Amino acid sequence: MSYHDKYEAVIGLEVHAQLMTQSKLFSGDSTAFGAEPNTHVSPITLGHPGTLPKTNKEAVELAIRIGLACNCHIERYNYFARKNYFYPDLPKGYQVSQHTTPICKGGHVTIRTASGVRNVQLNRIHMEEDAGKSIHDIDDNNTCVDYNRAGVALVEIVTEPDLSSADEAYHYVTELRKLVRWLGVCDGNMEEGSLRCDANVSVRLKGETKLGTKVEVKNLNSIRNVKKAIEFEIDRMINVIEQGGTITQQTRSFDASNDTTFAIRDKEEANDYRYFPEPDLPPFRLTETFINDIKDAMPALPEELYTLYHQQYGLSEYDAAQLCLEKETTDYFNEVVKFTTNYKAASNWINGPVRQYVNEHKIAMDSFAVKPQQLAEVMQLIDEGKINFSVASSKLLPALLADGSKAPIQLATELNLIQVSDSNEIENWVAEVIAKMPEKVAEYKKGKKGLIGLFVGEVKKASKGKADPKVVTTLLEQKLSG
Amino acid sequence: MKVTDELIDNLAHLSRLHFSESEKTALKGDFERILNFVEQLSEIDTTGVEPLLHMGDAINVLREDEVKGSVTRQEALLNAPLHDDVFFKVPKVIKNPSA
């Protein structure tokens, strides 16, 4: 037993998610990623005197949407505050943020780990504006600043110190990313910085109730890095304590090249941000109607669908979870099951050949060209014994993808894929195979029953895949036992 | 309220301003006079009165999510003390790792 087992970790995560608005939080500048530097800027973004910011309604709606999905309390009376500090990427000398009245309070995100299902408690979700981008390696003597990102709408989603392992943190960020994408709140792109994660990590002896000194780890630009950084940090802190050292409160950065973290600054005296209500922005009051309209327009959430698929449709936990990985997949599945009640087959098709196809072609599920009704028809052909799954997925599906205008039955017929269940024709192929392999037949008759698969395979070959394997097996067994 | 040297130094730091000793002494006097003037308000009993956060009655002043109002890069850079054709420039924030 390692000395690590004496300790437990306490982890809280702060996730910044860029809201999927067209324009910024307080100005009409575009939020499109990858534009030429300093082309998405206005006098408001640049903090010129005499300009007046105005709150983007869509940003408020998106923030409420994620809050409702996380079971948060939605604050009815909201106003913004100024957080004052100087940094070149902050043109106004303050960041406008909901420091005092976060729009969403409390709530939770449900995660499934190897140890079961649990709710990760949230502290708050609040809106704020993003900063610009400093570039340090273009000019030897100066830092270059691009203000395209300055003022873009973000929500900061803050958990309670409620996570206890790197693995839980991994599942939480995975789930949260899925949720914001599901709701169209954020595109979830961690490489482009649309979703950013900071982790507050501390360790303490098991049984201890006081929190240990925490370290904040930044620069976690993938879900994998969130996990790796926390793993490293827990390990590092335990080793420091075991060697008689003390943890200092620090901000650290993750180095993805070797999965370690390094200190970027020690926490000096507490920062003095001198928050005060933003006088340029009137407060906003949310009515029940406004909130209910948002609620009514929300899609079914992954948790609801998971429960539906597992409990009502009888799918396995694994199948249900696989379907619920992305909204597009559940949308497709929900359409298919309008045309069939064979839920298991629909799930197998979508989690199998359909997913394989979209992954291979790097397309989204909603661009998959076979219509849900057509897929249901293919499944019907299989259920009726007209075609088998293997031929359907390897031949009929590609044909449907190439020509979606024809009905599956028509395409299957044209391609000569309809399997033969007629015993007479199959009997000929069976006889042919038996005659061709007298030695194997003798072995089978002596008791080597496993050879049946070989015979079935040979008949399949002789029939070019058209013989119904069930009929073939039955016939073979009859003939060979005779 | 007593204005200390520490308070002056802290405010100067937060404002990124530098003052000579004689300026600091003058500031101290000014600050004290300003604060004493404002402190007269504390004579009023405000028990049960909500803080006044916003000066007007305006509420729910929201805009639709439309892209408009950006200026050209040339215009954006026009008033910056230091810039090239693309970027605003400021003194080095961090040491150049390659230098």
UniProtKB/TrEMBL annotation, chain A:
Keyword annotations: ATP-binding, Ligase, Nucleotide-binding, Protein biosynthesis
Q: Which domain of life is it from?
A: Bacteria
Q: Recorded E.C. number(s)?
A: 6.3.5.-
The segment(s) forming the Asn/Gln amidotransferase domain are 331-480
- Group of enzyme by EC: ligase
Q: Which Pfam families match?
A: GatB_N, GatB_Yqey
What is this enzyme's catalytic activity, as reactions? L-glutamyl-tRNA(Gln) + L-glutamine + ATP + H2O = L-glutaminyl-tRNA(Gln) + L-glutamate + ADP + phosphate + H(+); L-aspartyl-tRNA(Asn) + L-glutamine + ATP + H2O = L-asparaginyl-tRNA(Asn) + L-glutamate + ADP + phosphate + 2 H(+)
The record, for InterPro entries, names: Asn/Gln-tRNA_amidoTrfase_suB/E, Asn/Gln-tRNA_Trfase_suB/E_cat, Asn/Gln_amidotransferase, Asn/Gln_tRNA_amidoTrase-B-like, GatB, GatB_C_1, GatB_Yqey_C_2, Gln-tRNA_amidoTrfase_suB_CS
Q: Does the keyword ATP-binding apply?
A: yes
Similarity comment: family membership: Belongs to the GatB/GatE family. GatB subfamily.
The job of this chain, per UniProt, is described as: Allows the formation of correctly charged Asn-tRNA(Asn) or Gln-tRNA(Gln) through the transamidation of misacylated Asp-tRNA(Asn) or Glu-tRNA(Gln) in organisms which lack either or both of asparaginyl-tRNA or glutaminyl-tRNA synthetases. The reaction takes place in the presence of glutamine and ATP through an activated phospho-Asp-tRNA(Asn) or phospho-Glu-tRNA(Gln).
Q: PANTHER family of this UniProt entry?
A: GLUTAMYL-TRNA GLN AMIDOTRANSFERASE SUBUNIT B MITOCHONDRIAL AND PROKARYOTIC PET112-RELATED, GLUTAMYL-TRNA(GLN) AMIDOTRANSFERASE SUBUNIT B, MITOCHONDRIAL
Q: How does it assemble?
A: Heterotrimer of A, B and C subunits.
Q: Which NCBIfam families match?
A: gatB, PRK05477.1-2, PRK05477.1-4
What is the official name of this protein in its record? Answer: Aspartyl/glutamyl-tRNA(Asn/Gln) amidotransferase subunit B
| Organism of derivation | Danxiaibacter flavus
TrEMBL record, chain B:
Catalysed reaction(s)? L-glutamyl-tRNA(Gln) + L-glutamine + ATP + H2O = L-glutaminyl-tRNA(Gln) + L-glutamate + ADP + phosphate + H(+); L-aspartyl-tRNA(Asn) + L-glutamine + ATP + H2O = L-asparaginyl-tRNA(Asn) + L-glutamate + ADP + phosphate + 2 H(+)
User: Is this entry keyworded NADP?
Assistant: no
Judging by the UniProt lineage, the source's domain of life is: Bacteria
Q: Name one Pfam family in it.
A: GatC
Query: What Enzyme Commission number does this protein have?
Result: 6.3.5.-
Query: What keywords appear on the UniProt entry?
Result: ATP-binding, Ligase, Nucleotide-binding, Protein biosynthesis
Into which EC class is this enzyme placed? Answer: ligase
Q: Which family does it belong to?
A: Belongs to the GatC family.
NCBIfam families for this protein: gatC (TIGR00135)
Tell me how this protein assembles: Heterotrimer of A, B and C subunits.
**Primary role:** Allows the formation of correctly charged Asn-tRNA(Asn) or Gln-tRNA(Gln) through the transamidation of misacylated Asp-tRNA(Asn) or Glu-tRNA(Gln) in organisms which lack either or both of asparaginyl-tRNA or glutaminyl-tRNA synthetases. The reaction takes place in the presence of glutamine and ATP through an activated phospho-Asp-tRNA(Asn) or phospho-Glu-tRNA(Gln).
User: What protein is this chain from?
Assistant: Aspartyl/glutamyl-tRNA(Asn/Gln) amidotransferase subunit C
Q: What is the lineage of its organism?
A: Bacteria, Pseudomonadati, Bacteroidota, Chitinophagia, Chitinophagales
